[in-house]
Specification:
mainly alpha
């Protein structure tokens, strides 16, 4: 759940209907999918990362640091590129500011682009 959707949900629970923030569900879904990827890549819970930007950035940086281990274990150039591009996509999906987050169309376009570079 994106930070914006999380905020609106908490307002709904409090029955504070006058305090909702505008929400773009497409960008909210991108953030949610990014959290799912982060959960898979880090093998750790992502609970509450949608309400704590510092914890979220720390977790993404931890996943980014894991790519160093992959350089030792896997020496194939294409695999390293795939890891880096995946981390770059993950980082863009988890941008806190909804307006700065890519939509699915832009996300898929960049995935197609680096997919061609891998071939």
């Amino acid at each position: 759940m994106s930070p914006q959707l999380n905020f609106n949900y908490k307002q709904m629970i409090k029955k504070n209907n006058n305090n909702y923030i505008p929400l773009n569900y497409n960008f909210s879904d991108v953030f949610s999918l990014g959290l799912t990827f982060l959960n898979v890549m880090s093998l750790e819970s992502v609970a509450n990362l949608n309400s704590n930007i510092d914890a979220l950035e720390n977790r993404v940086n931890e996943v980014n640091d894991l790519k160093l281990y992959s350089k030792v274990i896997f020496f194939y150039k294409k695999f390293k590129l795939l890891i880096q591009e995946t981390i770059n996509s993950l980082r863009s999906m988890l941008v806190w500011d909804e307006a700065a987050r890519p939509g699915f169309d832009k996300l898929f376009s960049s995935i197609k682009k680096w997919g061609k570079e891998l071939n």
